[in-house]
Specification:
It is built from one helix and 16 strands. With 194 residues, the chain is mainly β. The protein starts with a helix and ends with a strand. The strands form five sheets. A six-stranded antiparallel sheet has the order 8-9-12-11-10-13, with no helix packed on it. It is globular, with a radius of gyration of 17 Å. It has one helix at 5-13; strands spanning 19-23, 45-46, 56-58, 63-67, 70-72, 74-79, 82-88, 98-100, 105-107, 118-122, 136-139, 145-149, 168-171, 175-177, 181-185, 189-191.
């Protein structure tokens, strides 16, 4: 079933976002693993998210974070002091998928990834054998399917069960900073998947 755009816009319009945060690992549902330290010191940034249009709400303008030596993997989004959502670094659009445990194959129509692409599963329980928020690698990619490996070029992971409803898969970028630097959140979009 495909939701009407007006319904998606209403759903997206019901959430307030006031700040963004940078994270060194998966924030979970609480905003864990937020970057700390540095000089100038890291701090969350105030953001403005545009009104929903076409079933999407997008970040109004980019924001730059001061970061110490670290690896930025995730962004968090807040409503005041309440953690609301997490998104993988890199600005990729999350994709719906289904997995077939008997063959360890993940099906995601037209995913566009090739072998060694870094991906992550989140927004629910991933297929058995995987952990939410961990970075994995695509292997055996075809137009609509792939398998998942723990390391680049590694063996396919045995998928033992189906994911929970709502779990998505997304490309992730891990930016490594050897010393004090800035990290920019240049785009973020919130969508209601079909």
């Amino acid at each position: 079933m495909t939701l009407p755009v007006a319904t998606k816009n209403n759903m997206l319009g019901g959430q307030t976002f006031t700040h963004a945060s940078a994270h060194t690992d998966f924030p979970g549902s609480t905003g864990a693993n937020e970057v700390t330290g540095g000089s100038p010191a890291y701090a969350q940034k105030a953001i403005t998210i545009n009104a929903a249009s076409g079933g999407i709400r997008a970040l109004n303008a980019s924001v730059a974070f001061d970061v110490p030596a670290c690896t930025v993997k995730w962004f968090g989004f807040w409503n005041g002091s309440t953690f609301v959502a997490a998104a993988p670094n890199g600005g990729a659009t999350p994709k719906n998928f289904m997995s077939i445990a008997s063959t360890d194959v993940v099906y995601s129509a037209g995913h566009g990834w090739s072998d060694t692409q870094k991906i992550t599963f989140y927004n629910g329980t991933p297929p058995g054998g995987l952990t939410e928020g961990v970075t994995y690698f695509v292997r055996d990619a075809t137009t609509d399917t792939f398998k998942v490996a723990a390391t680049s070029g590694g063996a396919a992971i045995d998928l033992t069960s189906a994911p929970s409803f709502g779990c998505v898969v997304c490309a992730i970028t891990e930016n490594v900073y050897a010393s004090q630097d800035t990290h920019t959140l240049s785009s973020a979009s919130f969508v209601v998947p079909d």
